[in-house]
Each structure stands twice: as C-alpha cells, then as structure tokens.
Amino acid sequence: MLKIFFPFIKNIPVEHSERNSMHLISPSGRKTIIRFRKGVPRGFSRLKFDQYLLNMALNRGSELIKEKVTGLEHKQGWWKVKTQRQSYAVKTLVGADGVNSLVRRNTIGSLNKADKGLCFGYFIKGLGKEDITIKYLPKDRGYMWIIPRGETTSVGIGSLRIFHPTELKNLVNVFINEYCPRAEKISEWAALIPNIRDAKTFYQPIAGQNIILIGDAAGHVSPISGSGIAYALLDGEIAAENIAEGHPELFSEQWIKIYGQWLFLETRLRDWVYKRPLLELYCKFLKIQSAMPFA
Asked: Which pLDDT value is given to residue 287?
C-alpha cells in the first residue's frame, strides 16, 4: 500500500531489509512459507524512516519548533498553542499527536479506553538473515512478529485483548527463546495504539473550519493488523491538500471516500477473522497455494 500511494519510498536512502518470503505460524503451530512474487516487503527502522520524512518537510520550507505543547485554547477563530516556553497563535490546528492526543482531548474528546491497545517488543541484533515471521496467538486475537529492518530486527506482540504489560513481555520472551534464542536484545519498547472496536467511532467528525485530526489521533489504524503508517501518510497528504484549498472541514469526507470503507469493514470482521478454526484453515490454504506453480 505504501509503495502504491507513495512511490518515493522505493528509493529512500534509509537502511532497510527486503525479503522474498514470510513464515506464517498458525495458532496450533502449523508453519507455512509464503513467497512473494511481486511487491517484496521492506523493513525500516521507524526512527530513521520518520527522520527522513521530517527532513523532507524541512527541506520544503517547514519549520520545526522543539517545544512540548502543554495546552490549547480556541478564541475568535484562532488556536492558542501553549508550550513550556511561550504561546503561538495558529489559524489551523492539525492533531498528529498520537493515540492520547491532546488536540483530540480538547476538541471531540479522547478515545475510550476500550478503543486502545498495547503493543510490546524488543529491538534485537543477530537476526540479519532472518525471514519475516508472523505467529498467531493460540488463545487470543492477535499475533507476534519478527521483522528484520536492516541493522536491527523488531520482535514484538500485539493483541486485540488488553493485556497487562508484564503478560505481553513474558509472551515475547517465550517466543524469542523458541525461535531466536541466541539473538541479542538491545532495547525494549511499549506503545499504545488505537484499537477501534465499533465503526461508529470512525463516524465522529474529526475536522472543522480550523481543526483536523490525523493518524493515531484520528484512530486511523487497521482494527485487524494494528498497522497505521500508510493511513497516517495518507491523512497527512489529504489534510495538506484541504488546508491549501482553504477547506480543512472537507477532510472528514475525503478520508472516508479514499480509504474509510476498509476501516469500517475491518471493524465488522475483526472478531471473525481471528477465530482459531478460520486461522488454521487460512494457513492451510496458503500452504497449498504457495506450492502451486504459476505462469
């Protein structure tokens, strides 16, 4: 999806990995190898990828102010953005400040606790030649992963059920001991992400005459896979176009028109997709399909 909408990603000078195959492990442990004939996936360090995008914006005239926003106030059609140092007056405010968005909290209200999920993982060395691996959880809706990114590899877990962080960490440690016991852990991380359970949440207006919410702040993350980078980039582009044309309020209509139906559909399918018998059948089907010759 990223390379379709943003072809520049094919040539960005950021260290990454490319794999021609992926290991898929069903809840019962059935292993399947999927070989990619087209659209070979790439793994990037998010820190380096995000820095590249920031540099693109700076090179095109954007200004980066390294100050933490502490408060917002709306007066006479303008936003007063307060930081630890001073205040700024802005005409149009774009909330791209994550799942616990301060902008969202001060406009339409924060996401409910039930609409948030927790991911946990490690950055690891010593898996430079490892294939992408996805292992579905045997008792819960979610999966663990091994994703090479160049110099380091991301190993982690995400689930539709709210786990205690210690539970997630223990599950990942067992996973590492089983599949890559000699790998060297560099650092660990944990992150909240949107985990929208009801499509009605997506129908909340997230744009007005001088306000737009995008990415995680808007809740625009796949309810099934938990991925949201592509949606965040699309939101940024749509928001920029609407602001440039003087109609930021049109953002709510535009994102639904361009890709919203996918998110609506996924909220209806999420619980059904992760039913264990279906996942077992899906993995079996992929194994058969990958063994078939194609012209």
From this structure: 55
Residue 93 to residue 210: CA distance in whole angstroms: 6
Collapse the DSSP code of 219 into the 3-class scheme (helix H, G, I; strand E, B; otherwise coil) and give the result. coil
167 — phi, psi (to 5°)? -60, -45
Give just the sign of the alpha carbon dihedral 204, 207, 211, 214: positive
Q: 120 and 189 in contact (C-beta within 8 Å)?
A: yes
Question: 17-46+117-195, superfamily in CATH?
Answer: D-Amino Acid Oxidase, subunit A, domain 2 (3.30.9.10)
Distance CA 255, CA 192 (A): 23
CA pair distance 182, 185, nearest whole angstrom = 9
By the 8 A CB rule, do 171 and 196 touch?
A: no
Angle at 276 between CA 270 and CA 281, to 5 degrees: 100
Q: Give tens-digit pLDDT for 138-184.
A: 877 789 999 988 888 999 998 877 777 888 899 999 999 998 888 89
Confirm or reject CATH 3.90.79.10 for domain 65-111+197-269, answering yes or no: no
Contacts by 173-179, CB closer than 8 A, 24 or more apart: 175/135, 175/144, 176/122, 176/124, 179/133, 179/135, 179/146
Compute how many other C-beta atoms are within 10 angstroms of the C-beta atom of residue 34.
Answer: 17
Q: What is the mean pLDDT of residues 46-68?
A: 92
Residue 72's SS3 state is strand
Query: So where are the chain's domains?
Result: 17-46+117-195, 65-111+197-269
Tokens of 223: 């309810």
